[in-house]
Amino acid sequence: MYRYKEIYSDIKNNILTNHYRAGKPLPTQEILSEKYDVSRLTLKKALNLLLDEGLIVSRQGSGTYVRNRPLKKSDELLPLDMPIGVTYSHRDQKVTSKVIDFGARLPTEEESKNLSIKRNEPVYEIKRERFVNGKTYSYEHTIMPTSIIPLDEKIVAGSIYDFLGEHKIAMTDARRIVYAQGADEEIAQGLNIKVNDPVLTIEQIVFDQDGRAFEYSHSSFLSEKSKFVFDVHRTDQW
Question: Cα–Cα distances in Å, from 144 out to 53, 96, 151, 164, 179?
Answer without folding.
Answer: 26, 20, 10, 12, 22
